[in-house]
Design brief:
Blueprint lengths: L2 H24 L7 H17 L23 E3 L9 E2 L2 H15 L4 E7 L2 E8 L2 E7 L5 E3 L2 H4 L15 E8 L2 H13 L8 H9 L4 H5 L4 E10 L7 H11 L7 E4 L2 H14 L7 E8 L2 H7 L9 E5 L4 E13 L4 E13 L2 E7 L3 H6 L7 E7 L3 E7 L24 E2 L7 E3 L8 H9 L11 H9 L14 H5 L6 H14 L4 H7 L7 H11 L2 H6 L2 H5 L6 H11 L2 H12 L7 H7 L5 E5 L7 H10 L3 E2 L9 E4 L5 H8 L3 E4 H7 L3
Parallel strand pairs: 2-11, 19-20, 19-21, 21-22
Antiparallel strand pairs: 1-6, 3-9, 3-10, 4-5, 4-7, 7-8, 10-11, 12-13, 12-15, 13-14, 13-18, 15-16, 17-18
Helix pairs in contact: 1-2, 12-13, 16-17
């Protein structure tokens, strides 16, 4: 295919992919399978890689930027993105209507859903998306163009060569919000309080790839400006934007009176929890654009629109008990067990209390009557205790100092709100601990991913990280989709991991606040895990970059008996617990080796150099002074001589274990 043919095919592929993106992400009506879509995208990527000069900013391949942004430049909004005044009851809606009619006479309103997300502007020139920014203060926002390109419902090319700017609301669907918080809980990161915070945090990531992974979406709800075309009503602009390929606000209706608006308020009060995105009210807008010009705006809000905010739905019930749930990162979260109550269309029997400070701050006791609500209309939480209804039978909640799952010490580090289990033997944490222990940054056990780990734990084959080194080939064969070759590879990977350096092991233990950098510092200072286990807080804090919190976390970890027992089992299994560089200096000191046969992983010269680097020496013949004969394939007469003299004979694999590689 020559360049001209490639250019034609690239245009065909882009049109097809843009069409299918629109069907899938805007209309929710896909026509082809994911496999067919991926095939089109792969073909486009291949052609663009062959002809990079044909890549354009609106190509579907340019949605996910590879560069981490240094920061967000300012974006000055040509048309300010002002806010809306809020109203909370029907009387205030009627007051708004009277003010509007006093200025412009008869009026039509458009009622739209108020999406709880992050407002932004999208700018197009000749139909091509060129720039996008957050609302900021309404006049100056942040240029987040690269991140907005990752949102697949935003068209990179419109269905016509229009030059315009639109306003939309970036949001995170409820399912995506729950999944993101679950992942953050597993990795020990703080949870987002609601979908709006999650959307805002995701759109403002400096790495567009992180934004791309968050499954953000957008609804466009206003045409800010357009060159060369005039409209009379807001609904006309929405229909036009829909025709251009935008995903416009999903529900809007024209009302000829404020009574019609109030009808919509009543309809959506009961329906709002059925949506798959967070919606906290309705927006009421004057439909006529000329009337909007007359009404104008204050310094911060439009006079031609108002936001009707629904009060957060609350329910009254009693806390029967407060239990502790242990998360995958060891976080102890107090949870209220409630007398079941209906809230937002579902029956609630438990609600989060977040942490110890939350309980104390709101003066919540076991037995209290309380109000609960759904945070972001998703997660039930206790918001207030009703102190006037106390009987004197209520009980104070006391945060446990041991983990209810495994009995290990539970600690709360200074400056942190969360109390955590310190145990390596905790069943609530085991899968997460194993994933971390086997990860590339730690012991790097190839083939031991989440799916394998989940099966090992569920089948009872592994209950803590030390058990990894005691599972057998036959055990692994019982796992789903595990053939003989895969089982052998995993056994070999486990065996190979025994020789990792000390800093990898320290990191793999998952000590709170001790990551790869701190692990390297500790390994360099203490040389041996046994020395680190004896270190006190004062000694540790004398090390640069090891602060009081890290020191306290280390001491707490090694004061837990179950952790010591697991480390001892790792040592018994042959896992290296010393800094290899230090071990190497004296590991083979004074030892004499002879090599015979062909080695698989070393040349004779490489093996000789390695032995000498580790303090040993290599001779050409076996004598009574020889300590070890390394025996490869097809050994010669040296093997017989070593047997005569009772010289220790080792295989290449045993030699590798000896030098911990």
């Amino acid at each position: 295919m020559n360049r001209e043919q490639a250019a034609l095919r690239i245009d065909e592929l882009r049109d097809a992919i843009n069409h299918h993106n629109y069907l899938y992400y805007v209309l929710d009506a896909p026509e082809i399978s994911d496999e067919e879509y991926d095939r089109l995208m792969r073909e486009l990527i291949d052609l663009e890689s062959q002809y990079p000069e044909l890549i354009t900013p609106d190509s579907p391949t340019q949605r996910v930027g590879g560069e981490v942004l240094a920061g967000f430049p300012e974006y000055f909004h040509p048309v300010p993105l002002l806010s809306l005044d809020d109203v909370f009851d029907e009387g205030e809606l009627k007051d708004f209507d009277r003010r509007v009619r006093k200025e412009v006479g008869d009026v039509e309103y458009v009622v739209e859903l108020k999406i709880d997300g992050l407002s932004c502007a999208l700018k197009y020139e000749n139909g091509i998306f060129i720039q996008g920014a957050t609302r900021g203060n309404g006049f100056v926002g942040e240029d987040v163009t690269a991140n907005l390109k990752t949102i697949r419902s935003i068209p990179l090319r419109l269905k016509g060569p229009a030059s315009l700017e639109v306003r939309g609301e970036v949001y995170m669907p409820k399912k995506s919000f729950l999944k993101l918080n679950e992942m953050r809980e597993q990795s020990g990161e703080p949870l987002f309080a609601n979908p709006r915070n999650a959307a805002a945090g995701s759109l403002r990531q400096l790495d567009p790839k992180i934004t791309a992974s968050r499954n953000l979406d957008i609804f466009v709800f206003n045409l800010q400006r357009m060159e060369g075309r005039k409209f009379e009503t807001h609904i006309e602009t929405l229909e036009f934007l829909k025709d251009m390929g935008f995903k416009v606000i999903p529900y809007y209706v024209k009302c000829n009176s404020i009574d019609g608006v109030i009808d919509q308020v009543r309809i959506w009060e009961s329906k709002r929890n059925e949506l798959d995105f967070a919606m906290d009210g309705l927006v009421v807008k004057v439909n006529g654009l000329a009337q909007r010009e007359i009404l104008g705006a204050t310094a911060k809000a439009y006079r031609w629109a108002i936001a009707y905010k629904y009060p957060a739905e609350k329910a009254k019930t009693r806390i029967k008990d407060i239990i502790i749930q242990v998360g995958r990162t060891g976080a102890l979260t107090p949870t209220a067990i409630l007398e079941p109550v209906k809230l937002a269309g579902s029956t609630i029997g438990r609600a989060t209390l977040h942490n110890e400070d939350y309980i104390k701050g709101k003066d919540i006791k076991i037995g209290d009557m309380v109000y609960i609500q759904k945070a972001g209309e998703i997660i039930p939480e206790v918001v207030e205790s009703i102190k006037d209804e106390r009987t004197g039978q209520e009980k104070e909640f006391i945060m446990p100092d041991t983990c209810p799952e495994c009995g290990a010490k539970a600690v709360r580090l200074p400056g942190e709100a969360v109390t955590r289990c310190t145990g390596l033997n905790c069943p609530a944490q085991i899968k997460r601990q194993l994933e971390h222990f086997a990860s590339k940054e730690a012991m790097d056990i190839e083939g031991m991913g989440p799916a394998v780990i989940s099966q090992l734990v569920d089948k009872g084959l592994v209950k803590n990280i030390a058990d990894i080194y005691y599972i057998g080939y036959e055990d692994i064969l019982t796992l789903d989709r595990m053939g003989k070759k895969s089982a052998e590879n995993l056994i070999n990977a486990i065996e190979e991991s025994k020789g990792r350096d000390l800093d990898r092991l320290i990191n793999g233990l998952g000590i709170r606040l001790v990551g790869s950098k701190a692990a390297k510092i500790l390994a360099g200072m203490y040389k041996d895990i046994k020395n680190l286990m004896k270190a006190g807080t004062e000694e540790l804090t004398s090390i640069p970059e090891i602060g009081p919190k890290i020191a306290e976390s280390i001491v707490d970890f090694f004061s837990e008996e179950q952790n010591i027992a697991i480390i001892n089992r790792l040592i018994e299994a042959g896992v290296n617990t010393r800094k290899i560089e230090e071990v190497h200096e004296t590991l083979l000191a004074g030892k004499t080796f002879v090599i015979t046969g062909t080695l698989k992983e070393f040349t004779r010269e490489e093996a000789t150099n390695l032995i000498e680097q580790l303090g040993g020496k290599v001779t050409g013949s076996v004598s009574r002074k020889t300590d070890y004969l390394i025996c490869g394939e097809d050994p010669g007469s040296k093997l017989d001589r070593a047997r005569e003299l009772n010289v220790t004979i080792i295989s290449e694999d045993n030699f590798k274990k000896m030098i911990a590689i």
